[in-house]
Specification:
CATH topology of the largest domain: FAD/NAD(P)-binding domain
Helix content: 25-40%
Number of helices: 10
Bound molecules: flavin-adenine dinucleotide
CATH class of the largest domain: Alpha Beta
Shape: globular
Strand order of the largest sheet: 3-2-10-11-12-9-13
Strand content: 15-25%
Number of strands: 15
Largest sheet: 7 strands, mixed
CATH architecture of the largest domain: 3-Layer(bba) Sandwich
Number of domains: 3
Structural class: alpha+beta
Length: 342
Protein backbone atom coordinates (compact mmCIF):
# COMPACT_ATOMS: atom_id res chain seq x y z
CA UNK A 1 0.00 0.00 0.00
CA UNK A 2 2.93 2.26 0.68
CA UNK A 3 4.22 1.58 -2.84
CA UNK A 4 0.83 2.55 -4.25
CA UNK A 5 0.67 5.65 -2.05
CA UNK A 6 -2.50 4.44 -0.35
CA UNK A 7 -3.73 3.82 3.19
CA UNK A 8 -5.35 0.47 3.95
CA UNK A 9 -8.85 1.95 4.03
CA UNK A 10 -11.56 -0.03 5.88
CA UNK A 11 -13.83 0.06 2.81
CA UNK A 12 -11.61 -2.43 0.92
CA UNK A 13 -9.15 -3.95 3.46
CA UNK A 14 -10.06 -7.42 4.66
CA UNK A 15 -7.23 -9.11 6.52
CA UNK A 16 -3.51 -8.97 7.25
CA UNK A 17 -1.51 -12.05 6.35
CA UNK A 18 1.65 -13.23 8.11
CA UNK A 19 2.83 -16.01 5.83
CA UNK A 20 1.90 -19.14 3.92
CA UNK A 21 1.30 -22.83 4.43
CA UNK A 22 2.46 -24.91 1.44
CA UNK A 23 0.87 -28.29 0.69
CA UNK A 24 3.19 -30.38 -1.53
CA UNK A 25 1.57 -33.10 -3.67
CA UNK A 26 2.28 -35.60 -0.87
CA UNK A 27 3.27 -35.41 2.76
CA UNK A 28 3.22 -32.81 5.49
CA UNK A 29 2.57 -29.12 4.87
CA UNK A 30 5.30 -26.49 5.36
CA UNK A 31 4.66 -23.25 7.22
CA UNK A 32 6.52 -20.01 6.51
CA UNK A 33 5.57 -17.25 8.95
CA UNK A 34 6.82 -13.75 9.63
CA UNK A 35 6.33 -11.61 12.71
CA UNK A 36 5.24 -8.61 10.66
CA UNK A 37 2.39 -8.79 8.12
CA UNK A 38 3.50 -9.77 4.61
CA UNK A 39 0.31 -9.06 2.70
CA UNK A 40 -3.00 -7.27 2.93
CA UNK A 41 -6.03 -9.11 1.62
CA UNK A 42 -8.35 -6.69 -0.08
CA UNK A 43 -11.64 -6.65 -1.90
CA UNK A 44 -10.61 -5.68 -5.44
CA UNK A 45 -14.06 -4.44 -6.46
CA UNK A 46 -14.21 -2.20 -3.39
CA UNK A 47 -10.65 -0.94 -4.04
CA UNK A 48 -11.60 -0.04 -7.62
CA UNK A 49 -14.71 1.78 -6.35
CA UNK A 50 -12.64 3.63 -3.74
CA UNK A 51 -10.12 4.76 -6.39
CA UNK A 52 -12.86 5.64 -8.89
CA UNK A 53 -14.62 7.88 -6.35
CA UNK A 54 -11.34 9.66 -5.61
CA UNK A 55 -10.69 10.17 -9.32
CA UNK A 56 -14.19 11.54 -9.91
CA UNK A 57 -13.79 13.90 -6.92
CA UNK A 58 -10.64 15.22 -8.67
CA UNK A 59 -12.62 15.98 -11.84
CA UNK A 60 -12.28 12.75 -13.86
CA UNK A 61 -15.23 11.96 -16.14
CA UNK A 62 -16.00 8.29 -15.55
CA UNK A 63 -18.02 6.34 -18.14
CA UNK A 64 -19.02 2.86 -17.07
CA UNK A 65 -20.18 0.11 -19.47
CA UNK A 66 -18.15 1.79 -22.23
CA UNK A 67 -15.80 -0.43 -24.20
CA UNK A 68 -12.93 0.94 -26.25
CA UNK A 69 -12.73 -1.05 -29.47
CA UNK A 70 -10.13 0.64 -31.65
CA UNK A 71 -7.12 2.93 -31.39
CA UNK A 72 -6.22 5.05 -34.41
CA UNK A 73 -3.17 7.23 -34.83
CA UNK A 74 -3.94 10.30 -36.92
CA UNK A 75 -1.94 13.27 -38.14
CA UNK A 76 -3.94 15.85 -36.15
CA UNK A 77 -5.12 13.99 -33.02
CA UNK A 78 -5.23 10.27 -32.11
CA UNK A 79 -8.62 8.77 -31.44
CA UNK A 80 -10.26 5.92 -29.61
CA UNK A 81 -13.39 4.36 -31.07
CA UNK A 82 -15.94 3.17 -28.51
CA UNK A 83 -18.19 0.13 -28.91
CA UNK A 84 -21.19 2.33 -29.79
CA UNK A 85 -19.21 3.75 -32.74
CA UNK A 86 -18.51 7.16 -31.19
CA UNK A 87 -14.95 8.50 -31.11
CA UNK A 88 -12.94 10.14 -28.35
CA UNK A 89 -10.01 12.37 -29.31
CA UNK A 90 -6.92 11.63 -27.25
CA UNK A 91 -3.50 13.04 -26.52
CA UNK A 92 -2.52 9.89 -24.60
CA UNK A 93 -4.39 6.59 -24.28
CA UNK A 94 -3.55 4.38 -21.28
CA UNK A 95 -4.52 0.81 -22.04
CA UNK A 96 -5.36 -0.74 -18.65
CA UNK A 97 -7.93 -3.17 -20.06
CA UNK A 98 -6.36 -6.35 -18.68
CA UNK A 99 -5.34 -9.66 -20.21
CA UNK A 100 -6.28 -10.16 -23.86
CA UNK A 101 -6.24 -6.51 -24.94
CA UNK A 102 -6.06 -5.94 -28.70
CA UNK A 103 -5.34 -2.19 -28.53
CA UNK A 104 -1.50 -2.52 -28.25
CA UNK A 105 -1.26 -4.07 -31.72
CA UNK A 106 -3.31 -1.20 -33.14
CA UNK A 107 -0.81 1.19 -31.53
CA UNK A 108 2.10 -0.60 -33.19
CA UNK A 109 3.12 -2.53 -30.08
CA UNK A 110 3.35 -6.19 -29.30
CA UNK A 111 0.85 -7.54 -26.76
CA UNK A 112 1.94 -10.14 -24.15
CA UNK A 113 1.88 -13.73 -25.33
CA UNK A 114 -1.83 -14.38 -24.76
CA UNK A 115 -1.20 -18.09 -25.40
CA UNK A 116 0.37 -18.10 -21.94
CA UNK A 117 -2.89 -17.26 -20.19
CA UNK A 118 -4.05 -19.90 -17.72
CA UNK A 119 -7.76 -20.26 -17.02
CA UNK A 120 -8.49 -19.42 -13.37
CA UNK A 121 -11.52 -19.96 -11.16
CA UNK A 122 -12.17 -18.70 -7.65
CA UNK A 123 -14.92 -19.18 -5.05
CA UNK A 124 -15.77 -16.99 -2.09
CA UNK A 125 -16.32 -19.66 0.56
CA UNK A 126 -18.22 -19.04 3.79
CA UNK A 127 -18.97 -21.24 6.82
CA UNK A 128 -15.52 -22.80 6.64
CA UNK A 129 -13.05 -23.79 9.32
CA UNK A 130 -10.88 -20.96 10.64
CA UNK A 131 -7.66 -20.54 8.65
CA UNK A 132 -5.92 -17.88 10.76
CA UNK A 133 -3.51 -15.43 9.19
CA UNK A 134 -1.74 -17.66 6.66
CA UNK A 135 -2.60 -18.19 3.00
CA UNK A 136 -2.63 -21.84 1.95
CA UNK A 137 -1.14 -23.01 -1.35
CA UNK A 138 -1.76 -26.47 -2.81
CA UNK A 139 0.45 -28.12 -5.41
CA UNK A 140 0.33 -31.26 -7.55
CA UNK A 141 -0.93 -32.73 -10.80
CA UNK A 142 -4.17 -33.89 -9.16
CA UNK A 143 -4.88 -30.43 -7.79
CA UNK A 144 -3.68 -27.83 -10.33
CA UNK A 145 -1.30 -29.13 -13.04
CA UNK A 146 1.42 -26.63 -13.92
CA UNK A 147 0.27 -24.05 -11.36
CA UNK A 148 -1.30 -24.18 -7.89
CA UNK A 149 -4.48 -23.71 -5.88
CA UNK A 150 -4.87 -21.14 -3.12
CA UNK A 151 -7.00 -20.40 -0.09
CA UNK A 152 -6.84 -16.81 1.10
CA UNK A 153 -8.65 -16.04 4.35
CA UNK A 154 -10.89 -13.00 4.07
CA UNK A 155 -12.48 -13.23 7.52
CA UNK A 156 -12.77 -15.60 10.49
CA UNK A 157 -14.73 -18.29 8.64
CA UNK A 158 -14.49 -17.17 5.03
CA UNK A 159 -11.86 -17.43 2.31
CA UNK A 160 -11.19 -16.86 -1.36
CA UNK A 161 -10.36 -20.30 -2.73
CA UNK A 162 -9.21 -20.67 -6.30
CA UNK A 163 -6.82 -22.19 -8.77
CA UNK A 164 -5.39 -21.93 -12.23
CA UNK A 165 -3.99 -24.80 -14.24
CA UNK A 166 -2.14 -25.56 -17.46
CA UNK A 167 -4.52 -28.34 -18.43
CA UNK A 168 -7.67 -30.12 -17.33
CA UNK A 169 -10.99 -28.83 -16.05
CA UNK A 170 -10.45 -26.03 -13.51
CA UNK A 171 -13.99 -26.33 -12.12
CA UNK A 172 -13.56 -30.04 -11.43
CA UNK A 173 -10.17 -29.44 -9.79
CA UNK A 174 -11.61 -26.69 -7.60
CA UNK A 175 -14.73 -28.64 -6.62
CA UNK A 176 -12.57 -31.64 -5.69
CA UNK A 177 -10.28 -29.46 -3.54
CA UNK A 178 -13.24 -27.83 -1.76
CA UNK A 179 -14.79 -31.25 -1.10
CA UNK A 180 -11.47 -32.54 0.25
CA UNK A 181 -10.49 -29.57 2.41
CA UNK A 182 -13.68 -27.71 3.35
CA UNK A 183 -16.58 -30.13 2.90
CA UNK A 184 -18.90 -28.13 5.16
CA UNK A 185 -18.36 -24.75 3.47
CA UNK A 186 -20.79 -22.92 1.19
CA UNK A 187 -19.97 -21.10 -2.06
CA UNK A 188 -21.06 -17.47 -1.76
CA UNK A 189 -19.74 -16.15 -5.10
CA UNK A 190 -17.77 -17.34 -8.12
CA UNK A 191 -15.24 -15.52 -10.28
CA UNK A 192 -13.47 -16.81 -13.33
CA UNK A 193 -10.66 -15.02 -15.10
CA UNK A 194 -7.31 -15.18 -16.78
CA UNK A 195 -4.07 -15.72 -14.92
CA UNK A 196 -1.18 -14.34 -16.90
CA UNK A 197 2.28 -15.89 -16.59
CA UNK A 198 3.99 -14.63 -19.74
CA UNK A 199 5.83 -11.71 -18.16
CA UNK A 200 6.02 -8.17 -19.47
CA UNK A 201 6.12 -6.99 -23.07
CA UNK A 202 9.40 -5.67 -24.48
CA UNK A 203 8.03 -2.17 -24.95
CA UNK A 204 5.10 -0.48 -23.19
CA UNK A 205 4.80 2.79 -25.08
CA UNK A 206 4.41 4.26 -28.53
CA UNK A 207 3.56 7.88 -29.39
CA UNK A 208 0.26 8.77 -27.67
CA UNK A 209 -0.16 5.32 -26.13
CA UNK A 210 0.99 3.36 -23.05
CA UNK A 211 0.05 0.00 -21.58
CA UNK A 212 -0.20 -0.80 -17.85
CA UNK A 213 -1.18 -3.77 -15.67
CA UNK A 214 -2.16 -7.11 -17.18
CA UNK A 215 -2.47 -5.47 -20.61
CA UNK A 216 1.32 -5.00 -20.46
CA UNK A 217 2.05 -8.33 -18.75
CA UNK A 218 3.08 -6.54 -15.53
CA UNK A 219 2.49 -9.55 -13.28
CA UNK A 220 4.57 -11.87 -11.13
CA UNK A 221 5.13 -14.88 -13.39
CA UNK A 222 5.38 -17.18 -10.36
CA UNK A 223 1.85 -16.42 -9.11
CA UNK A 224 0.07 -14.37 -11.79
CA UNK A 225 -0.38 -11.64 -9.15
CA UNK A 226 -0.59 -8.22 -10.70
CA UNK A 227 -2.27 -5.94 -8.19
CA UNK A 228 0.90 -4.50 -6.64
CA UNK A 229 3.07 -4.34 -9.76
CA UNK A 230 0.26 -3.28 -12.08
CA UNK A 231 -0.99 -0.77 -9.50
CA UNK A 232 2.44 0.79 -9.14
CA UNK A 233 2.99 0.91 -12.90
CA UNK A 234 -0.49 2.37 -13.33
CA UNK A 235 0.44 5.18 -10.99
CA UNK A 236 3.69 5.89 -12.85
CA UNK A 237 1.83 5.64 -16.16
CA UNK A 238 -0.82 8.12 -15.02
CA UNK A 239 1.80 10.68 -14.01
CA UNK A 240 3.66 10.22 -17.31
CA UNK A 241 0.48 10.49 -19.40
CA UNK A 242 -0.63 13.66 -17.61
CA UNK A 243 2.78 15.25 -18.27
CA UNK A 244 2.82 14.07 -21.91
CA UNK A 245 -0.66 15.50 -22.48
CA UNK A 246 0.72 18.94 -21.58
CA UNK A 247 3.47 18.71 -24.22
CA UNK A 248 3.79 17.96 -27.91
CA UNK A 249 5.97 15.91 -30.26
CA UNK A 250 9.22 14.44 -28.99
CA UNK A 251 8.88 16.26 -25.66
CA UNK A 252 5.59 14.44 -25.01
CA UNK A 253 7.11 11.14 -26.16
CA UNK A 254 9.97 11.49 -23.68
CA UNK A 255 7.53 11.25 -20.72
CA UNK A 256 6.05 8.02 -22.08
CA UNK A 257 9.50 6.58 -22.80
CA UNK A 258 10.57 7.47 -19.23
CA UNK A 259 7.56 5.61 -17.82
CA UNK A 260 8.75 2.45 -19.55
CA UNK A 261 12.27 2.92 -18.15
CA UNK A 262 11.12 3.77 -14.62
CA UNK A 263 8.87 0.79 -14.05
CA UNK A 264 11.51 -1.62 -15.36
CA UNK A 265 14.09 -0.07 -13.01
CA UNK A 266 11.79 -0.92 -10.10
CA UNK A 267 10.60 -4.41 -11.10
CA UNK A 268 12.65 -5.60 -14.11
CA UNK A 269 15.30 -7.51 -12.19
CA UNK A 270 12.77 -9.33 -9.96
CA UNK A 271 10.55 -10.16 -12.93
CA UNK A 272 13.48 -11.72 -14.80
CA UNK A 273 14.23 -13.98 -11.81
CA UNK A 274 10.57 -14.89 -11.39
CA UNK A 275 10.46 -15.75 -15.08
CA UNK A 276 13.41 -18.10 -14.60
CA UNK A 277 11.69 -19.75 -11.61
CA UNK A 278 8.45 -20.11 -13.57
CA UNK A 279 10.25 -21.69 -16.55
CA UNK A 280 12.16 -24.11 -14.32
CA UNK A 281 9.25 -25.19 -12.21
CA UNK A 282 6.17 -25.06 -14.45
CA UNK A 283 6.47 -28.66 -15.67
CA UNK A 284 7.61 -30.46 -12.52
CA UNK A 285 6.34 -33.93 -11.78
CA UNK A 286 4.77 -34.54 -8.37
CA UNK A 287 7.85 -36.47 -7.30
CA UNK A 288 10.22 -33.61 -8.13
CA UNK A 289 7.87 -31.14 -6.43
CA UNK A 290 7.90 -33.29 -3.29
CA UNK A 291 11.70 -33.30 -3.31
CA UNK A 292 11.82 -29.56 -3.88
CA UNK A 293 9.50 -28.90 -0.97
CA UNK A 294 11.62 -31.08 1.27
CA UNK A 295 14.61 -28.84 0.41
CA UNK A 296 12.50 -25.76 1.16
CA UNK A 297 11.50 -27.34 4.49
CA UNK A 298 15.20 -27.36 5.45
CA UNK A 299 15.47 -23.67 4.61
CA UNK A 300 12.35 -22.25 6.22
CA UNK A 301 14.29 -19.98 8.58
CA UNK A 302 16.11 -18.32 5.67
CA UNK A 303 12.89 -17.99 3.64
CA UNK A 304 11.18 -16.40 6.66
CA UNK A 305 14.05 -13.95 7.06
CA UNK A 306 14.56 -12.99 3.41
CA UNK A 307 11.39 -13.88 1.46
CA UNK A 308 9.19 -11.09 0.08
CA UNK A 309 5.85 -11.81 -1.55
CA UNK A 310 6.21 -9.05 -4.14
CA UNK A 311 9.96 -8.84 -4.67
CA UNK A 312 10.78 -12.55 -4.96
CA UNK A 313 14.01 -12.26 -6.98
CA UNK A 314 16.44 -12.34 -4.04
CA UNK A 315 15.04 -15.45 -2.36
CA UNK A 316 14.64 -17.27 -5.70
CA UNK A 317 18.34 -16.77 -6.51
CA UNK A 318 19.39 -17.77 -2.97
CA UNK A 319 17.40 -21.01 -3.17
CA UNK A 320 18.64 -21.83 -6.68
CA UNK A 321 22.20 -21.58 -5.40
CA UNK A 322 21.61 -24.21 -2.70
CA UNK A 323 23.50 -27.40 -3.44
CA UNK A 324 20.51 -29.67 -2.82
CA UNK A 325 18.39 -27.56 -5.19
CA UNK A 326 21.12 -27.75 -7.83
CA UNK A 327 21.13 -31.56 -7.54
CA UNK A 328 17.45 -31.49 -8.52
CA UNK A 329 18.12 -29.66 -11.79
CA UNK A 330 18.64 -32.81 -13.94
CA UNK A 331 15.22 -34.02 -12.72
CA UNK A 332 13.75 -30.58 -13.54
CA UNK A 333 15.15 -30.81 -17.08
CA UNK A 334 13.84 -34.37 -17.52
CA UNK A 335 10.36 -33.27 -16.33
CA UNK A 336 10.41 -30.34 -18.79
CA UNK A 337 11.22 -32.69 -21.70
CA UNK A 338 8.49 -35.14 -20.62
CA UNK A 339 5.97 -32.27 -20.42
CA UNK A 340 6.70 -31.28 -24.03
CA UNK A 341 5.70 -34.75 -25.23
CA UNK A 342 2.80 -35.38 -22.84
C1 LIG B 1 -9.05 -15.90 -10.11
C2 LIG B 1 -7.97 -14.85 -10.03
C3 LIG B 1 -7.41 -14.53 -8.79
C4 LIG B 1 -6.37 -13.59 -8.71
N1 LIG B 1 -5.83 -13.31 -7.48
C5 LIG B 1 -4.87 -12.37 -7.38
C6 LIG B 1 -4.30 -12.03 -6.11
O1 LIG B 1 -4.63 -12.61 -5.08
N2 LIG B 1 -3.35 -11.07 -6.07
C7 LIG B 1 -2.92 -10.40 -7.18
O2 LIG B 1 -2.05 -9.53 -7.08
N3 LIG B 1 -3.44 -10.71 -8.40
C8 LIG B 1 -4.39 -11.67 -8.52
N4 LIG B 1 -4.91 -11.98 -9.75
C9 LIG B 1 -4.40 -11.26 -10.92
C10 LIG B 1 -5.03 -9.87 -10.93
O3 LIG B 1 -6.43 -10.01 -10.92
C11 LIG B 1 -4.58 -9.10 -12.15
O4 LIG B 1 -3.18 -9.08 -12.24
C12 LIG B 1 -5.09 -7.65 -12.04
O5 LIG B 1 -6.48 -7.66 -11.89
C13 LIG B 1 -4.70 -6.85 -13.25
O6 LIG B 1 -5.26 -5.58 -13.12
P1 LIG B 1 -5.61 -4.69 -14.38
O7 LIG B 1 -6.26 -3.47 -13.84
O8 LIG B 1 -4.40 -4.57 -15.24
O9 LIG B 1 -6.65 -5.54 -15.23
P2 LIG B 1 -8.11 -6.02 -14.82
O10 LIG B 1 -8.24 -6.18 -13.36
O11 LIG B 1 -8.39 -7.20 -15.71
O12 LIG B 1 -9.02 -4.79 -15.22
C14 LIG B 1 -9.26 -4.46 -16.58
C15 LIG B 1 -10.49 -3.60 -16.64
O13 LIG B 1 -10.64 -3.10 -17.97
C16 LIG B 1 -11.97 -3.34 -18.43
N5 LIG B 1 -11.90 -3.53 -19.88
C17 LIG B 1 -11.49 -4.62 -20.59
N6 LIG B 1 -11.52 -4.41 -21.91
C18 LIG B 1 -11.94 -3.13 -22.06
C19 LIG B 1 -12.19 -2.32 -23.21
N7 LIG B 1 -12.00 -2.76 -24.46
N8 LIG B 1 -12.65 -1.05 -23.00
C20 LIG B 1 -12.84 -0.57 -21.74
N9 LIG B 1 -12.61 -1.30 -20.62
C21 LIG B 1 -12.19 -2.56 -20.78
C22 LIG B 1 -12.41 -4.60 -17.69
O14 LIG B 1 -13.82 -4.64 -17.63
C23 LIG B 1 -11.78 -4.36 -16.31
O15 LIG B 1 -12.58 -3.55 -15.52
C24 LIG B 1 -5.92 -12.93 -9.88
C25 LIG B 1 -6.50 -13.24 -11.12
C26 LIG B 1 -7.51 -14.18 -11.18
C27 LIG B 1 -8.13 -14.51 -12.53
Amino acid sequence: MELLGLEAHSSFSQKLIHGARFFPPHGESIEVRKKDPVALILNRMKLDQFLAKRAVAEGVELRTKTRASKFERRADEDSLTLADGSKVASKVVIDASGAGSRLPEQAGLQAPDWAQILPGLQYELVEMKEQGDLVELFFGSKRAPGFFAWSIPTGKNSARVGLASKKGNVKKFLDDLVKEQWPRSTIDATKSGSVLVSGPVARCWSPGFIMVGDAAGQVKQTTGGGIVIGGYCGKLGGIAAASAANHNGTEAEQFLRNYDTQWREKFGSDLRKMSLARKLFASLSDETLDRLFSVLRDNVVEIEAEGDMDFQGKIIMKMLKKRNVATLLPRVAADAVKAIFS
